[in-house]
């Protein structure tokens, strides 16, 4: 054993949830240590890829517009989850989210005016100036100034839990073993979205074709240890946030620039050249999160978003340009799908479009009629070269399986009282709120709210 140390509060994971917990615990008088598996340059987990959170607010004060009250927020959450949420924790999250902007501003995070473009979120979502990376850097700086000790590249963390109590842990750093004890433990080490073996247990071999949009470090090692210690599980291993991303994106950490937003402006086909879902069902911000799952269900987990020149400039382009051609025939050859089948799909689609007044900012009713799968809005004939194709893969954002917590962020046991000194925040417990479905910006909201609760309660227990 190279070193032995003690802190009041040990926080596992240095993303937004862990940083918020660490800062709150330190402000409540605790000595705090963050153990982060990533090197300093890659700190901040999935948080460094984020752009916004979703706060409840009545005032519309900067950076928000209008008002977004409790009832509307709750309605939105209940709709996307189909009611699959812990209602008390959901209400707590929404109420406490009202303080998230002020808390972040007080801790060095700046906001920007709402973005325009395909995501019309000015009333519901607050955008971080400089994105998640700037937020992460601000919070690390604030934490360091409070005396929070951060250990990077802390690998192989092994928790020593007796009954439902955390005792101490060991970790490796540069081949040396260290031991740290603490009065309280905050688990904020993300989900298991970067662990393809674990994903395969839930999704089968299809998981091997998933691309991980965020950090490669969220492999669920801490979550696994808590579940093995028989803390109560919440959520379904197959539920997650997954979007359609450019199939040419890197296996990990591609971030938001690989998301393909052209879907509602054209058609999407599988590798047989056939459509499989209504591309214009609803506004894209409400539908983008179903397309990862839809692509995952196709053969070889691949799809192709096809548009013509009329769609150019109407959606946020991806970092990689589309494949382009002046003929459908040649485009099909480039993406290696049967040209006759793609031509047939497009001919049938074009013939089924009914005339209307196209408006990509509204549910315009420009639709098809008579197809086995119709398109409800923004259906225009694909007839104007050059034609574009984006290859699509499922891009997993984060998983929902986690540990059950109570309103003090204490992890729950199957029977009896929750743990006295183990708390969870962020993705590790997001499944309490998100049984399935997703509401843009609620991931960061959950981390912000439960990070503050976990930090406060961990410090209180330690004192
Ligand atoms: C591309 C992308 C864009 C997103 N955009 C948004 C957005 O705009 N708004 C929104 O609300 N949500 C967004 N999300 C979701 C959001 O990132 C998460 O909900 C939020 O960041 C979760 O915070 P967290 O602290 O729980 O997890 P993370 O930020 O992922 O932090 C977990 C930390 O734990 C560390 N860790 C993991 N395993 C271990 C271990 N064994 N030991 C020690 N440390 C470990 C990781 O390295 C990481 O630093 C996005 C996600 C992605 C991938």
Overall shape? elongated
Binned, the helix content reads 25-40%
Q: What's the rounded overall pLDDT mean?
A: 95
CA(first)-CA(last) distance: 28 Å
What CATH architecture of the largest domain would you give?
Answer: 3-Layer(bba) Sandwich
Bound molecules: flavin-adenine dinucleotide
Radius of gyration: 23 Å
What number of structural domains do the residues give? 2
Q: What is the chain-wise order of helices and strands?
A: EHEEHHHEEHEEEEHEHEEEHHEEHHEEEH
Tally of DSSP β-strands: 18
Annotated CATH homologous superfamily of the largest domain: FAD/NAD(P)-binding domain
Question: What percent of residues are in strands?
Answer: 15-25%
CATH class of the largest domain: Alpha Beta
Unreliable runs: none
SS element count, helices = 12
